[in-house]
Specification:
Radius of gyration: 56 Å
Distance between the termini: 138 Å
Strand content: 35-45%
CATH architecture of the domain at 259-653: 7 Propeller
Helix content: under 10%
Length: about 725
């Protein structure tokens, strides 16, 4: 072969090297700026300096590649072992699989993305500031961690030193919460309406709140004591503590000796003694209205002024409010004295009705009505209505107002004398109240027609059994006849039954021209009416009682009971006492001024009385006006006593009781026999064994142990406040 010696070989154009087809064999050294192409056939490639770079599209290494650093991406699989420390940064993308063992420490940062799988064991530690996983993480062994946002465990999560939740709470969707040991809650446990806590032996707390109505086997709330029962105790009984430490139910017994209590002075006038004292009990309000007229100086003359005042029983006394002048028609303001008056209460309208007439000006005869004010110490009257038609009247004797509970209207009856005709009449009118204080009057209807007799006696009482009014009236001058008949209200009209002549003759028969209706009383137990009177003349007075019975529209009368004869006139007053189921008769001897009381018993149509007992003596006294207060079980007496007008309580059968002002302690929490250990509910406890209570009302203990809105002891003994019809909080 020939030898070609040249310095430079170029292609024919002269812009690059030549192109050689086939193999080129070089026995020496080939030096080039870069080698391009397949270098797999090169052998014994050595001596490459560490500072040199290998630039190629593909480098296949079957042995070990050793370098100070690797620059660029590693794409592909690493199937061997990586042994040693990786202390630098891996900045880039690892898209292949890392298969094998990593036995050294990875101390630096991995800031790129790992999109492939890491399969194999990590024997060392992986230490970093934070890690975020968008998918699931499965750990076969134990995972120790802190400050994790969410943990979703398929199996158990075990915390060896406790679980602390600082925000968000613990939400258990299913399976419940099982706690072994003590669970401590420093705030509220809140559930929905379906939340129940069951299977708990006991729950201890400093306080419990919410509805406890479904709790069972509760001990008595509030305070309780245990003591030995002296006698039997029923559940809910009022209980007193005895001096020997035992407890007993409150009991009382009645005495046959009447008892008077402290008097209350309503008015005193040295000018002249008051007159026309009357008493009326108002059921809904449990108060008494007392009326009277007193004298006062009007220039050179003496005039009378009619007044009323409202009293309420408190303990063993009655307390009154201010005096109020009768509500006269403003056009007749100078007329202020009503010698004849009466009061009744309309329960349908909750209104007091007052009828009155002037003692010298007979045209000033009025009916007026009104409810109580809020303070219950006065009445808010409407306008007065004159109940007499125009005419020429010489005398008017107003006798009665009777409320008909069946018709829910009031019957007004009175007697008057027509001067023009010189005749006397007994007349009735229906009083209707609307709006609480508006009065309208029905057409007048006479129960006693024109008569030349001096008809002054007229009394009325309502018979609740017959639902009719009994009228008793009579001649007061010469005839001496006494009549009776029924009155029935229908709408605004009155119909009368057949007139009965109860007594006929020439004897003087009277109850006094201006006496009140307390000479006639209805006995609700016997369902009959009893009438008290005196007849005759001195020294042959006869004091008696008669019983009247209504059947349909007819009246019958029984025989006379004469209980006193002689010179003493025993002016009688009657009052039905529902606690004993009988009427009480009060009598006044006009000679020695002894005040007596007795009990009237009706058998068939015959009355009888118990022994008359002198309970008081006055030097100068009028007869008492009695009215029964069923709430407090006292008869309230009003009378003129040696000058002043007084009111006081009277007890026909006073109670002796083991109750004192300071020994009531509470209610029995069960039924106990004598000698048993009894649990007594005391202050703050709630007793639930009562009946008929009004929620929100305060109740007081009576002498017989019953509960009352007012009580009948002095001082009042507070039992507690009603929470419901059956529950009362003791002294609370």
């Amino acid at each position: 072969m020939s030898q070609l010696n040249v310095n430079t070989i170029k292609n024919r154009v002269g812009n690059s090297g030549p192109t050689v087809d086939g193999n080129t064999v070089v026995s020496g050294i080939v030096t080039a700026t870069a080698f391009v192409g397949d270098g797999s056939g090169l052998t014994n490639v050595t001596g490459i300096a560490q500072t040199a770079n290998i630039k190629a599209d593909t480098v296949n290494v079957t042995g070990v590649v050793t370098a100070t650093t690797f620059d660029g991406n590693v794409t592909g699989n690493v199937t061997g072992n990586v042994t040693g420390d990786l202390t630098g940064n891996v900045t880039g993308i690892v898209t292949g699989n890392l298969t094998g063992d990593v036995t050294g420490d990875l101390t630096g940062n991995v800031t790129g993305n790992v999109t492939g799988n890491l399969t194999g064991d990590v024997v060392g530690n992986i230490t970093g500031v934070a890690a975020t996983f968008s998918g699931d993480v499965s750990i076969g062994g134990t995972l120790t961690y802190e400050d994790v946002t969410n943990v979703d465990s398929v199996g158990l999560v075990t915390a060896r030193t406790g679980v602390r939740v600082t925000t968000g709470g613990v939400d258990i969707a299913a399976g419940g919460l099982a706690v072994t040991g003590i669970a401590t809650f420093n705030d509220n446990i809140v559930g929905d309406n379906a939340t129940n806590i069951s299977g708990i032996n006991s729950v201890t707390a400093t306080a419990f709140y919410g509805d406890g109505s479904n709790l069972t086997n509760l001990p008595a709330s509030g305070g309780t004591i245990t003591a030995t029962a002296s006698g039997t105790l029923a559940n809910g009984d009022t209980v007193v503590l005895n001096s020997n430490g035992t407890v007993s139910t409150i009991t009382s017994s009645s005495s046959s000796t009447p008892k008077l209590y402290k008097s209350t002075e309503l008015f005193f006038n040295v000018r002249n003694a008051p007159v026309g004292v009357h008493n009326y009990y108002i059921p809904d309000e449990n108060v008494v209205i007392t009326t009277f007229a007193y004298a006062y100086d009007a220039g050179t003359a003496v005039q009378y002024r009619s007044v009323y005042t409202i009293g309420k029983v408190v303990g063993e006394t009655i307390e009154y409010g201010p005096l109020h002048i009768f509500p006269w028609d403003p056009s007749t303001s100078s007329v202020q004295a009503a010698y004849y008056s009466d009061i009744v209460y309309d329960t349908n309208q909750s209104s007091v009705i007052l009828a009155f007439s002037h003692q010298s000006d007979e045209t000033a005869s009025y009916v007026i009505a009104g409810p109580f004010n809020d303070a219950k110490d006065d009445i808010e009257w409407g306008d007065p209505v004159n109940y007499l038609p125009s005419g020429n009247y010489g005398a008017i004797y107003l006798k009665s107002l009777v409320y008909d509970t069946n018709a829910q209207k009031t019957l007004l009856t009175f007697v008057f004398r027509d001067i023009t005709l010189t005749q006397y009449y007994g007349r009735g009118r229906v009083v209707t109240v609307s709006g609480g204080n508006t009065v309208t009057l029905g057409t007048a209807n006479d129960f006693r027609g024109a008569s030349g007799d001096d008809v002054r006696i007229s009394h009325a009482v309502y018979d609740t059994n017959a639902q009719k009014t009994l009228l008793i009236y009579g001649d007061d001058a010469s005839g001496g006849n006494v009549y009776a008949r029924t009155a029935t209200i229908s709408g605004t009209t009155i119909s009368y039954g057949t007139q009965l002549t109860a007594v006929s003759g020439t004897e003087y028969f009277t109850t006094g021209n201006n006496s009140s209706n307390t000479v006639l009383a209805y006995d609700a137990t016997a369902q009959k009416s009893v009438f008290a009177y005196y007849r005759g003349s001195n020294p042959n007075y006869v004091n008696g009682l008669r019983v009247f019975t209504i059947s349909g529209t007819s009246v019958t009368v029984g025989s006379e009971l004469t209980y006193e004869t002689g010179s003493n006139v025993l002016i009688g007053r009657l009052c039905y006492n529902s606690s004993i189921g009988k009427c009480v008769l009060f009598t006044l001897k006009n000679t020695d001024k002894e005040l007596e009381s007795s009990i009237v018993t009706i058998t068939g149509t015959t009355p009888s009385i118990s022994t008359r007992i002198v309970y008081d003596v006055f030097y100068n006294s009028g007869q008492v006006e009695p009215v029964y207060d069923p709430v407090h079980n006292y008869i309230v007496q009003a009378l003129v006593s040696d000058g002043p007008v007084i009111a006081r309580l009277f007890d026909i059968q006073p109670e002796t009781t083991n109750l004192t002002s300071d020994n009531f302690i509470g209610f029995s929490d069960g039924a106990y026999t004598n000698g048993q250990t009894a649990t007594i509910q005391t202050v703050g406890s709630i007793d639930d064994a009562q009946t008929g209570l009004t929620p929100g009302k305060k109740y007081y203990v009576k002498k017989d142990g019953d509960l009352s809105l007012n009580g009948n002891t002095t001082p009042l003994i507070f039992a507690g406040t009603a929470l419901s019809s059956t529950e009362i909080i003791v002294k609370g």
